Structure formats: structure tokens, C-alpha cells
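Researcher: Structure prediction, please.
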Amino acid sequence: MDENNSPKQLRRSRTTRMVAGVCGGIAEYFGVDANLVRLVIVVLTFFGGTGALIYVIGWLLVPEADADNSIAENLINQAQNRDR
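Model: Predicted structure follows.
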């Protein structure tokens, strides 16, 4: 836990982003360099495509640093509101 006694939350980064902030957010969460996470994602992408899949899933499911909901949550909420 951090100094505010609140649990760490995985969020997409706004400060260390290159595309959607997924790698930057993972790096901030685990306390590692964002370039290391990017390198791992690129290597996984070239060897089987898993890295690209992980990135897209992270982009959809992990909210941005200042957002309450992820992109997927917002899409689900919009669909549910249309059905009402």
C-alpha cells in the first residue's frame, strides 16, 4: 500500500504513454521502467501475437489514471442504457 493507505490500482498512464498508456500503467503499477514493459510486449507480439492481444485487452479493460470506468465498462453501460 502507498502512503495514503489505499491499495494500488492498475491504471493506464497519462504521463508515460506512447499509444494508449497500457505499458506505462503496467510499469507504474509494478515499479519498473516503461521501456522494459514495452520491450516485453513487442517481443511477445513477434513471437505468437500474444503481446498485441494483451495490449488490446489492457486498453479495453484498464481505466485511465483519472477515469472511473474502462472503455469496456463504458460500452457496456451505453448498451444497457439503450435497452431501457
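Model: The two ends are 40 Å apart (CA to CA).
Researcher: Thanks, that helps.
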